[in-house]
């Protein structure tokens, strides 16, 4: 992905003591290719490169003490700017009307549920309305999600075929129930077609929603850009919600969609669970694209679910290269609480590549329990210094934990490799240390 391909370029640049025009030109060529590979639209990539070059060629940069780092910063800031600058929230004064649109499978219905939960937690009284009149299953799906987040849902009769009529009835109902924000989940299509667009336009004209959000799958790349443009031309979207950022999504779509429509990305969906909708921060996304890892996001996620002090302690030990099996146990407990560990790993600097090599099975709770049993069967000294564990002890540990010798061997080997990796990339250690020190 974009982060991977840029990683090398930036590693090279950071190490450069003196920047010349040819350094910059080389780096920019790499970056341009990386951007194109990540599905950033051609014109946007070109413009971005020109911009960075102009800034990077400025005399101040060339004279600076750490030109490499400064250029990386220019890249970062430009990316963040391209992604929208500051975070933009929802504008939903009561009675608020919010309409979601997008292609089938983009995540509209899921996002409707997530938004309802979010607004409810903010003290609003939301109503969900199903306006997908083509697929009865879509209505059931919204009703199920509504139940999960404990928010009322308005569902039309199966015989109904006029979206405006349904919308009018839903609004009347919302008024009697004193709902202060109404979320409309609309129908999608496999691809843009006239009928869908006409229907959305009629609905939009009738509803006059304060927020018309396009829900787009972050993994769809180039296609997402033309989709965004079409929807924006048809109904004038007020923002974008990017879904499935927990997957292998490339940053390219986000970049292009924002540039082409000029509309802010307001939220990011990062999982199927209903609380996995987060504010979109261009700054952090730029970090992520540049492969620095979404540290702030990570710490926030960790802090919201586990004790911040514990988390920091273990991160500091990581940074000092002192990480042992006792820390590992602590961390496993934290991670178990966190649930989606793979998602978390993706946010950590340097882990992007590693993450892909870890099989999903490694995150299986049953397996985690076995791993925990193995560690618990070690003596405290062995946990501190796993290198002292000899063959005979491995056998005992396997028996003691009710696991197999191969599992014990595998764990010790993986742990050894993990430690090595944590000690080696200076970049990561440095960042962790800065982070630990800053908190
Ligand atoms: P719709 O057709 O636009 O209404 O899309 P749905 O809401 O039905 O979502 C399609 C699929 O994508 C479902 O399986 C959702 O669970 C899944 N999905 C939606 N948002 C996310 C997300 O942020 N991350 C992940 N991993 N899956 C998502
Ligand atoms: Mg749907």
Automatic annotation (TrEMBL):
| Keyword set includes Cell inner membrane | no
The organism sits in which domain of life?
Answer: Bacteria
Where this protein primarily resides, as one coarse class?
cytoplasm
Which residues are GTP-binding?
102-109, 185-189, 243-246
Q: Where in the cell is it found?
A: Cytoplasm
Which EC number(s) does the record attach to this protein? 3.6.5.4
Catalytic activity line of the entry: GTP + H2O = GDP + phosphate + H(+)
Per UniProt, the keywords (alphabetical) are: Cytoplasm, GTP-binding, Hydrolase, Nucleotide-binding, Ribonucleoprotein, RNA-binding, Signal recognition particle
Q: Pfam families of this UniProt entry?
A: SRP54, SRP54_N, SRP_SPB
Residue intervals of the SRP54-type proteins GTP-binding domain:
264-277
Assembly, in brief, is: Part of the signal recognition particle protein translocation system, which is composed of SRP and FtsY.
**Annotated family:** Belongs to the GTP-binding SRP family. SRP54 subfamily.
Q: What is known of its domains?
A: Composed of three domains: the N-terminal N domain, which is responsible for interactions with the ribosome, the central G domain, which binds GTP, and the C-terminal M domain, which binds the RNA and the signal sequence of the RNC.
What does this chain do? Involved in targeting and insertion of nascent membrane proteins into the cytoplasmic membrane. Binds to the hydrophobic signal sequence of the ribosome-nascent chain (RNC) as it emerges from the ribosomes. The SRP-RNC complex is then targeted to the cytoplasmic membrane where it interacts with the SRP receptor FtsY.
Put simply, this protein is called: Signal recognition particle protein
Higher taxonomy: Bacteria, Pseudomonadati, Verrucomicrobiota, Verrucomicrobiia, Verrucomicrobiales
Q: Which gene encodes it?
A: ffh
